[in-house]
Amino acid sequence: MKGALSANGVPLVEIDELKVYFPIKSGLVLDRHVGDIRAVDGVSLEIRRGETLGLVGESGCGKSTIGRAIMRLYEPVEGRIVFDGVDVTHLGERELRPLRRRMQMVFQDPYASLNPRHSVGRIIGEPMRVHGLATRRDIGGRVRELLNVVGLPADAAARYPHEFSGGQRQRIGVARALGLNPDLVVADEPVSALDVSIQAQILNLLESLQAEFDLTYLFIAHDLAVVRHISDRIAVMYLGTIVEVSPADELYSRPLHPYTIALLSAVPIPDPKVERRREAILLPGDLPSPANPPKACRFHTRCPFVQPTRCRDETPRLRELASGHTVACHWAEKIEAGEIQPHEREAVFQAPLPEPVPELPPT
User: Fold this and answer.
1) Which range is least confidently modeled, 94-98, 231-235, 262-266, 277-281?
2) What is the pTM of this model?
3) SS3 assignment, position 79
């Protein structure tokens, strides 16, 4: 079953109160520290072995920063990152090296993530050589196997990235990640730069590879329809914090946080009659600066259901309001406690929710 715990009884990845800040410098030589961009500010998550955890939110909320922090491409300022029982938060390069091959990443931009001066064979084979997983003679055969797995011809190994389309380049990136037989793959918006028809092919490819190679995914995206197609659970992020975590189907049928409801209301439905009846929830104001986020609930400056005192004074904590469904929202707590009348609650769900992306066979 997807989402099962690992053999030692703990999730594959545990993130506990993770904080990643980027300093703001000022002065003629940029030597004066005047503040911080709080890209990730106190996030706690778990990724279970064999599942796909979708991480969604608008641009600038800190999604990609979490993924890169797990990979230790960014250094956390506080908190813990535990991978398969090993605390990797502050491991040195030598201690981290054996674990790096078990954590791989597929990047957002297939045009920027592949070295244009290297052949596809070298791009895919280089990680295997660096980690000593194959000899120079064996690498060629392994590269051809991986190209076949991701749906590319064997002669692609002798060609260069500029000879391929965006979807084909992303397949090359997936093959490079698979070359080290990883346990965890962080997919950072891997389809956002691709056409819709190609997106479905890449998503189906990722799903088939997960079943074949027993992979665990952290799938980062801003498109909720795409995330529903591939995820077992979904975490919703706003301004550096997690506001809701839920099984995928339940999030779409019964969202509880006002921000999640607003995001879902903006997802288009491919039915003109239904689409004409829908009303997107337009959030007032602009996204606050991550350098100076609002106190207490960070969403209260834009929330249509803000409670004047509690939301501005008391920081909501992630609480389990239903089985496997956690929310950081005072308004959602009142819903579950029965303090909000049914007609008030139903008024929030103004239109049918979006259906998942239709499946297309990979080509």
Assistant:
1) 277-281
2) 0.88
3) strand
Decide: 201 and 34 in contact? Cβ < 8 Å: no
Q: Cβ(193)–Cβ(110) under 8 Å?
A: yes
Q: CB–CB of 242/327 below 8 Å?
A: no
Give residue 6's identity as a one-letter amino acid code. Answer: S
Of 103-107, 121-125, 267-271, the range with the lowest mean pLDDT is: 267-271
pLDDT of residue 354 exceeding 50, the answer is no
CA atoms of 122 and 158, how far apart (whole Å): 9
Tell me the torsion sign for CA atoms 57, 62, 66, 68.
positive
CA distance to 21, 138, 174, 262, 317, per residue, from 143 (Å):
38, 9, 12, 44, 47
Q: Which of 351, 314, 352, 354 is nearest to 333 (CA)?
A: 314
Residue 312: CB partners within 8 Å, gap ≥ 6?
Answer: 295, 296, 297, 300, 306
Q: What residues contact 89, with CB distance under 8 A and at least 6 apart?
A: 76, 79, 80, 81, 82
Per-residue pLDDT band at 7 (split at 50, 70, 90): very low
Q: Where are the domains of the chain?
A: 112-181, 254-346
Q: What is the largest CA-CA distance in the chain?
A: 70
Per the CB < 8 A criterion, the answer to whether 200 and 359 are in contact is: yes
Give the span between the Cα atoms of 124 and 231, in whole angstroms. 27
Asked if pLDDT for residue 352 goes beyond 50, the answer is no
Q: How far is CA 26 from the centre of its chain?
A: 32
What gap in Å lies between CA 296 and CA 275, rounded to an integer?
35
Contact indicator for 186, 67 with CB cutoff of 8 Å: yes
Q: What is the C-alpha to C-alpha distance for residues 187 and 204, in angstroms, rounded to an integer? A: 14
Beta pairing partners, 319: 327
Phi, psi of 40 (to 5 degrees): -130, 125
Helix (H/G/I), strand (E/B), else coil: 238 = strand
Beta bridge pairs of residue 188: 220
Question: Tokens in use for 243?
Answer: 């506001």
> At which residue do the structure tokens 């303090």 appear?
339
How far separated are the first and last CA of the chain, in Å rounded?
27
